[in-house]
Structure formats: C-alpha cells, structure tokens
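Notes from the 1:1 (GR / supervisor)

We went over the backlog. Supervisor wanted to see one worked example end to end before approving the batch request, so GR pasted a single chain during the call. The sequence is below; no edits were made to it. Supervisor asked that the structure be written out right there so they could see what the output format looks like.
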Amino acid sequence: MTVSKTAWRSRGVRLITRSTSASADSRARDSARRRSRSHGAGVTAGAGLSGFVGTARRRGRSSPPNRYTLPIGGHASDRLAITEVIIPGVSVHIGRDVDDALENLSSVKDATLLAGGTDLLVEINFGRARPTHVIVIDRLDELKALDRNGHIRMGALVTYTRMLADDPGSAALREAARTVGSPQIRNAGTLGGNLGTASPAGDTLPVLAALDATVVLRSRAGERRVKFADYMTGPKKSVRRPDEIVVAAEWDDAGPAQTFMKVGTRNAMVIAVAGLALVVDRARRRVGVGLGSCGPTILRAPDAEKFAAGLFDEAGWDRRMRPTEVARTEFGRLAAAAARPIDDVRGTAAYRRHVLAVMASRALARVATIA
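Structure output shown during the call:
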C-alpha cells in the first residue's frame, strides 16, 4: 500500500458512512478522482486496509477507487454503504533501542506501540482505533533474542515464522505458531504482539499458560516479571502499564511431551473457536493445561492437571503410557469443566465445551506416548 506524503500532511481523519444510490455512487467515484488529482497519488487499498479510498496509477492509467462496501437493507445492488477513511495525521517515533522507546513512551500520553501491526491495523480498519502517536519498536534488536539453555527466554519481537524456522524451546509453541494466519501474518506477527493485545483467542497464549511462563515487562523505572497466570485481567486487558513494554517471555524447558490443538471454522487463517495446550514436564513432574477462546482470559484446568498427574504417578513419569479410553474421557470432561465460554458468532458455549473435551482427550493420548 502506498500513501503520498502530501495526503498524510494535508488531511485529518474522516469516517463517513452513507447510504447511496447508483448516481450517488458515481458522484463518490468522481470525488475520489478529484481528490487524487489535487493531492497527488492516492491510496491503493490492500487486504489489511480495504477501507481507504483513493486512485491507483498503473501503467499510466487510472483505476477505479478501492472501496469497502456493505449492503444496507434490500439487495446489495440497490443500496450500498461507502465507508471512506482518510489516514489521520499521526506523529511517529521510530525507536532506536529499548531505552529510547521507553523514554518516548513515558513522555507521550496515549502512545500506541507498533511492531508487526497485525492487530493494530485491523483495529484501525474497523474504526476501533485512531492512534495519534505511534512508537515503532520493530527495529529493537534486543527484543529479537531467543536464548535456550535449560531456561528459555524468547524476546517479544520473535515472529511466528521464526518459531517455525528455529527451535523455540517448546514443541507446543511451534505447533501454535503454525496455526497463526497466513505466511505474511506469520512473518510480521510476534509473541509480544499476542501478549500486548492479550486476547483470549491469542494462539500462543494457551501454550504460555501451560508452560507456566513468566512475562517480562520493562519501563524507565526498571524491569518486572509477572507470572502468566496473573498477567491477563480480562478480554484484551492485562497488568501492563501504559509506560511499559513487553520485552520477553520466559519458561523452563519442559521437554518434548507437549502439544497444541485448535478448532476453527476452517483449517487455516481463522480465529480460534477454542484452543488447548497440554504440557507434561516429566523431569519436574508437572502437568499444565491452557485453554483459549473459552473465557475472558486464558484459563488453566487445575482439576484436569491433577488427574493427569495421578495417571503419570501411577505409570511412571519417565515411561510412555497409553491412557485408557475411560481416563481420556475423564480428562477431557475435567478440562471442559474449567472453561467459561459464551455464545458468539464463532460458536456456542456448548460447542466450545464439547470440542475442548475432545481436544483434551486426544492431546493426552498424543502426549502420553512421548517420553
């Protein structure tokens, strides 16, 4: 997507939604062309920002403006809503290092952090966010570190693509990264973005819960560590303060006996209807279960964890085992009972509980055979 500097400087933000006939639609096209001629090259709307209106120049010819149109009553060809978004004038600070970014973050009110932008651009596109000051942190090399030495420290700017290419220190985290979006989204999206957004549908977050991970936050006052279980406080809410940046997540190496499962309305590029991570740390004799998209935050399933730990106590933590169907069913029931789902456009609460029980049963069967 290309945006002329003239257009950025000369216009504020407007969000106009109007119902229009075919003749009004034609007038809107003419208006867009006139703006393009008077303000230089316009906007070519990409998949992520389809609401921006402008005229693209291709091979010396004008193409029609790109518009995001929605039917408003009646047939789509009769009445259309033309949503026009003109990019606001935004101050942008590109962080040179973590200290520089933190200094700017502490000095500006209502600053917005930008790394991969895969969540922020969606919010802008749907009119839910109108940032006035953006701090770009995608060039902070310190946040791209990935250290593995019995204890894992993953920097906030480690992308999902890198989790697939390198050893991320967790087999379940790699499986979760594979389910995220498209290759383009995985190239841009980061672990820190999932933590910063704090959505209960974040794919990597059930894994961090099951790993009993710690979130590392930093401000100008210093660094603090928050157990993941205490990090999220509600849907897209966390204990991160406005002057803090998520710099890393840390956890103990739990070994290979772990997995992540996800149910969506299709097989790829989809928000989870429900997600589940299961980690069996045989060395430390600990079982962790993380549940996603089934409550206001990422949830743990302590009764299911205790039940599974009892199975491994009986069979031996250092030995493979094949849980009986009765044991798998009970584990699934306990995992589903820990959920606090709601009915929404992606699925009902009853369906979420059902798929959680199925996923938990399958996850236990899979992980128990990994020594």
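Supervisor's comment: Residues 1-25, 35-83 have pLDDT under 50 and may be disordered.
Batch request approved.
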